[in-house]
Write a structure and sequence with these properties.
The chain has 255 residues and is of the alpha/beta class. The chain has one domain: Rossmann fold (3-Layer(aba) Sandwich). Helix content is 51%, strand content 14%. It has 9 helices and 9 strands. The strands form 2 sheets. Strands 3-2-1-4-5-6-9 form a 7-stranded parallel beta sheet, sandwiched between helices. The longest helix is centred in the middle third of the chain and has 29 residues, at 96-124. The N and C termini lie far apart (57 Å). The structure holds NADP nicotinamide-adenine-dinucleotide phosphate (NAP).
């Protein structure tokens, strides 16, 4: 019998690389996707199981197509839609090209790959697809990180909607979203932010995420703080929520 197979976008660092290590320890064969070849080669060389690498830029539609083509009709047991990045600053001052690239990666590629992968999973009526959103996706908006929050709200929304569709179809396929707060990865460096809340480790976040995913939890909140934020958000007036989020974001900018 062939090994179980997992595919991870954004596998060259942070949570993606950690998903690779933990799934490999669980016996999964892997397909590791990102732009930085040398990182993927190094990671693949240190894993317990067979790991192929696929170097591409998911912001390009043709690259997303190539991923789906490369997988072909091989059964994918787990798909981690993880590639993503953020940016910080006043909406009118942040770089438009970076914003649009973020939308291409965090939204367009995630959407494209989600649809393509679910169509493959439907053939087997089996598979787990976890979208990596963020605590940014469970809040009404993120002043000074507006584009990033908006992309992650999209990820949360589409994950919940499709989860319900699958449930109503009595499907065995799982779709959920992971919504962490700060995790200690290369994210903050790429987004030009200093976390103001203490970050959790990628190792802990991924272990918790996999446990909850296998329990088919629709929204995964990997820390007590983020669970608190989620609950509070349900009772908090909108303007107050925006003010509180703004205050946190300004601290990240050192204001
Ligand atoms: N760290 C946090 O605090 C935090 C919190 C909540 C949610 N998240 C989300 O978690 C996910 C993983 O981020 P991380 O924290 O692990 O950050 P990270 O260490 O910066 O990893 C981001 C990964 O995404 C890949 N990536 C970015 N753009 C890509 C593109 N155009 N094509 C292919 N791959 C691309 C990067 O690979 P290459 O550069 O090699 O292409 C890298 O492997 C992201 O979706 C992020 O938004 C992070």
């Amino acid at each position: 019998m062939s090994n179980k197979f997992a595919v991870i976008t954004g596998a060259s660092s942070g949570m993606g690389a950690e998903f690779a290590r933990q799934l490999s320890n669980m016996g999964y064969e892997l397909l590791l996707i990102a732009r930085r070849r040398e990182r993927l080669v190094e990671l693949a060389g240190n894993l317990e199981t067979k790991a192929d690498i696929f170097v591409c830029d998911v912001a390009k539609e043709e690259d997303c197509d190539s991923i789906l083509e490369y997988i072909g009709d091989r059964k994918v047991d787990i798909f981690l839609n993880n590639a993503g990045f953020g940016d910080c600053g006043n909406f009118t001052e942040t770089d438009l090209d970076k914003d649009l690239n973020m939308i291409d990666v965090n939204v367009r590629a995630l959407h494209y790959l989600m649809k393509g992968m679910l169509r493959k999973m439907e053939v087997y009526n089996d598979g787990y697809l976890l979208n990596i959103a963020s605590s940014a996706g469970i809040l009404p908006g993120g002043p000074y990180m507006a584009t990033y929050y908006a992309t992650k709200a999209y990820v949360r929304s589409i994950s919940l909607a499709v989860n319900q569709e699958l449930r109503e179809a009595n499907s065995n396929i799982y779709v959920g979203c992971l919504c962490p707060g700060p995790v200690n990865t290369e994210f903050s460096q790429n987004a030009n932010v200093e976390f103001t809340l203490k970050g959790i480790s990628a190792e802990y976040c991924v272990r918790y995420a996999l446990q909850q995913m296998f329990k088919r939890k629709m929204i995964i909140l990997p820390s007590a703080t983020i669970k608190g934020v989620y609950m509070f958000n349900h009772i908090c007036p909108l303007r107050l929520a925006l003010r509180l989020t703004s205050r946190q974001q300004k601290k990240k900018l050192g204001r």
